[in-house]
Amino acid sequence: MTKILNVDDIEIEIEKQSPNHDCKWCVFLKVGKRNKEKLLLMFKINKKPHLNFNHNSGSIVSRSNTVFNLIFKNTDYFTDKYIKFPKKELPMKQDGLTRNQMLNYLQRSDEKKKLYWKKRIEDFDNFASKLEVNKKRLK
Question: If residue 30 lies in a helix (H) or strand (E), which one and from where to where?
Answer without folding.
Answer: strand 25-33
